Amino acid sequence: MFAPYANAALSALQEGVQKLRGGNQAPPSIVRVGILPTLAQVLFPPALAEFRRAFATVSVDVHTGPNLELLRSLKAAEVDFVVGRLGEPSSMTGMSFEHLFREPLTIVVRAGHPILRGPITASTLASYDLLLPSAGTLIRQSADSPVGLAESSTHAAE
């Protein structure tokens, strides 16, 4: 299930090393990676294991944090590359990026939850407490726009 994502992360790591090499030079001694905590737990370990098999002498320094913080670290050259989400267009100025995976938005409830008795609409969701991505992130905008969660729900936890 996670193999395509791990392969994408491994490709990003390998590409990062190639760019840091600058041609046929030896790989750098350390690669500093910024990654979202949610991706670091599931996606990154298999990619890191594969990377270490290919580049045994390269140390990997992993930084986790919110996407905006990681992008700031990238701009400040505190990390060499980031595995995260696309930021607001203004925060992506001067950066290049490659789409590695699509992250679906999913509503998750327990089996037998009352919300499953009928069609799930924005007004139905508004009567429940919701756990949503942080305000101001692109993924939150995706959650807000199709069903109007921000306007309809007063019970949102971030």
TrEMBL record:
PANTHER family the UniProt entry points to: HTH-TYPE TRANSCRIPTIONAL REGULATOR YBHD, NITROGEN ASSIMILATION TRANSCRIPTIONAL ACTIVATOR-RELATED
SUPFAM superfamilies per record: Periplasmic binding protein-like II (SSF53850)
Domain LysR substrate-binding: 30-144
Pfam families, per the entry: LysR_substrate
Coiled-coil region: none
Protein name, per record: LysR substrate-binding domain-containing protein
Lineage: Eukaryota, Fungi, Fungi incertae sedis, Mucoromycota, Mucoromycotina
Source organism of this protein record: Rhizopus delemar
GO cellular component terms, semicolon-separated: cytosol
